[in-house]
Design brief:
about 190 residues, 3 domains, 6 strands, about 40% helix, two-stranded antiparallel ribbon
């Protein structure tokens, strides 16, 4: 649990450092900014920041669940192992009210897997399955610049011939997904009743 020491005596910052807790001077002109920064960093409300466990330097960051999933295979294994062993991923997910995933990752340890690649696969697949489940039944607008294969039925390569025929003017089957119109925003797809 993160702890923050507030004091009007600046010299108390050395005590906070020894105790490994945060410190804010009560007379600081930027107290609200410092408090916001502390809460964002230590209560996991900001981006998920992957750090190098040796230097504690930032190696990458994820702003949302989609980017977290994308970064799983890109970040160094040591960084992922560090965050997993300290339950940082679960804490970050909980701060975003993604409770099913947070609960699922809470008790996951490196000992539960053969190697770090198996851990990465587990995390990636679990996030992917969660995103697919949440996207079921959603009618979305297709935008080429923000396409997300987990939020659109258009991601299935086996459907490519069907898409092309629809784009070429074929009539959709009743009850099937179909595409309608191009515009500045791209394609729109709908489920037919």
């Amino acid at each position: 649990m993160p702890i923050l020491l507030q004091s009007s005596e600046k010299d108390k910052s050395s005590i906070a450092k020894k105790l490994k807790v945060g410190f804010i001077n009560k007379h600081s002109k930027a107290i609200s900014v410092e408090l916001r920064s502390f809460i964002s960093e230590y209560f996991a409300f900001g981006d998920f920041v992957f750090v190098d466990p040796e230097t504690m330097a930032e190696v990458d960051r994820a702003k949302d669940l989609k980017t977290l999933q994308q970064k799983i295979y890109r970040v160094p294994s040591a960084s992922l192992a560090y965050h997993l062993s300290r339950n940082h991923i679960s804490k970050w997910l909980r701060a975003r009210a993604l409770f099913p995933l947070a609960e699922r990752f809470k008790d996951v340890g490196l000992d539960d897997f053969e190697n770090i690649d198996a851990v990465k696969k587990y995390l990636f697949d679990a996030i992917g399955n969660y995103r697919l489940t949440k996207a079921r039944g959603v009618i979305a607008e297709f935008r080429r610049d923000s396409f997300d294969e987990y939020l659109s039925w258009l991601a299935r390569p086996t459907d490519l011939p069907k898409w092309q025929s629809l784009l070429d003017g074929a009539k959709p089957d009743p009850g099937q997904f179909y595409l309608s119109g191009f515009g500045d925003t791209g394609l729109r797809h709908y489920r037919r009743g």
